[in-house]
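Homework help board

Subject: predicted structure for assignment chain

Our instructor gave us this sequence and asked us to write out the predicted structure in token form, then describe one feature. I got the tokens but I'm not sure how to describe them. Can anyone check?
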Amino acid sequence: MEKKIVGTGAFLGFLGIVLGAFGAHALKKMLTPELLAAFETGVRYQMYNAVFLLVLGRLDLITDRARNIIFNLIVWGVVLFSGSLYTLALLSAADISLRFVGILTPFGGTLLIVGWFWLFVAVFRKKS
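My token output:
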């Protein structure tokens, strides 16, 4: 499980760097400042949670069950939160409107919040 979590964190970090560079260079001329800011928010939160997964994979303070639950919450949170922001920005640049994608953003954000809170609880619940 450790290899899967750290590997996923590394991949999300790699992808965050690529998307950040893409946003800063290619999308800067195509998006409004608001859409570019939304795209950058997606990149920023993806990177925060990529680092979180790197730490989570090596953390001995919680049970394997808690680690697995947190991993899934964070991965799905990033997919829904950051992914929906990327999709909204890119579709808007292509002049395509899919408003329902925006409803995914708060669900993803909620999963990220729950994942971090689950870590908080798990650290204090594990018996030494």
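Reply (TA_rk): Your tokens look well-formed. For the description, you could write something like this. The chain has four helices and no strands. That's the kind of observation they're looking for.
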